[in-house]
Design brief:
This protein is mainly α. About 70% of the residues lie in helices and about 0% in strands.
Amino acid sequence: MFATLNNYRMIFDQIFISDKNKPADNYGKSKSSEKPVRSVVKAISWRVVGTIDTIIISWFITGQIALALSIGTIELVTKMILYFFHERVWNIIKWGK
């Protein structure tokens, strides 16, 4: 529980708390660099699609909609956090840009 709260706090800090004295292009000179808020929006939109898929598959396998919704909810939160950090790491990697 506390680890999850710390993850949300780190995401919040990354997005909303910044040094206002830094130049506007503090994410690098590259035009292909994304701001953290874009990664969050992409994570949310992709997770909605992925979670609907997970719920449908879980419902098909278990035959229980309540269990399928529980699985989908857990999957939604964990994979959104993982995706955000995955995007941030790939944004640092120069390969393929």
